[in-house]
Design brief:
Helix content is 46%, strand content 13%. With 136 residues, it is an alpha/beta fold. It has one domain.
């Protein structure tokens, strides 16, 4: 879906990961794949290094989202939720609490499944945020 939006709007897109991610190679030129080394956090570090105000980053990784929001980068997750300075601290605190529960063998509430409703929410948020960013 992200590639469809970037192609339609002619927006350069960068994927950063520590392993190749399958993607439509016909979009090469507009899309770039950055393969980072396998050390902990290297892909996150590269994303933070590349991102600048006016960019849009899509991630569900809350520590990464927090780093980006602190730098005034627009961030949304794969469900269309926009991370802001106001909500990221609370979301990160809740995430850290759930991680601590899991590390101590306690069950915690997991994220619901991903279906058409979530895809539609992402598409709407992506469209809205890209439209806003493209105006500037």
């Amino acid at each position: 879906m992200v590639l469809r939006f970037s192609s339609r709007l002619n927006i350069p897109t960068v994927f950063a990961a520590n392993r190749p991610i399958p993607w439509d190679k016909s979009k090469e030129g507009l899309v770039r794949m950055e393969i980072c080394d396998k050390t902990e956090g290297s892909a996150d570090d590269r994303i933070v290094e590349l991102a600048e105000p006016g960019d849009l980053v899509l991630t569900r990784d809350l520590p990464l989202a927090e780093r980006l929001v602190e730098r005034d980068i627009k961030v949304l997750d794969d469900r269309g939720r926009i991370f802001t300075g106001e909500n990221i601290k609370q979301l990160r605190s809740l995430r850290d609490f759930n991680v601590a529960l899991a590390e101590n063998g306690l069950d915690y509430t997991r994220t619901a499944g991903y279906g058409k409703k979530e895809v539609q929410a992402l598409a709407q948020s992506l469209d809205r945020e890209l439209t806003i960013l493209l105006k500037y």
